[in-house]
Amino acid sequence: MEHSRFRSFFCGAFCLFGVLFPAKLFAAEQTLSVDFSEARLVIVSADGSERFSTAVVLPRRNFYPVPVQGTVRRAEMGPTWIPTRRMHEDQPGRFRASYGPFAPGNAMGHCRVKINFDSTHPMLRYVRVHGNARETDLGKRLSRGCIRIPDNRCQELVDTLAGHVTAVRFEP
Known about the structure:
Elements: H1 2-20, H2 22-25, E1 30-35, E2 40-45, E3 50-55, E4 58-59, E5 68-77, H3 85-90, E6 111-117, E7 128-130, E8 141-143, E9 147-148, H4 154-161, E10 166-171
Parallel strand pairs: 1-10, 4-8, 7-9
Antiparallel strand pairs: 1-2, 2-3, 5-6, 5-10, 6-7
């Protein structure tokens, strides 16, 4: 009877740990890397084959330390966006209170990838990979901290991330 209780407790704790910390429990199946020197995002599978690649728009300043690592928490099409209080203060009247999926002015563009970074740097809690990059801006440092990709690559990015444990690396 004691053995059965212990086994039930152990299995329950193991499952709870897996729900709370999925990337720590399972090895990454692929890696999303952002190379800041090349302004490029690449996803490579565990066997080394390239699954996705695109030019990106990078942060305009060094808002956070690079290199930094993490894990993809969620990738979605059609995100909503709420401008920060500071954005409203810096540019009064420019932004609406919020923007719906695919709405004109939505800074997230057509997709958003949320990342759990291993670093506790305060800026990283706001950093995303998202759409809304203009072709003419690719390769430049223009964002407020996020990594932007062209909207026409969003569906492919989200599909490539779907159902996979994905490690993240931002490299200098």
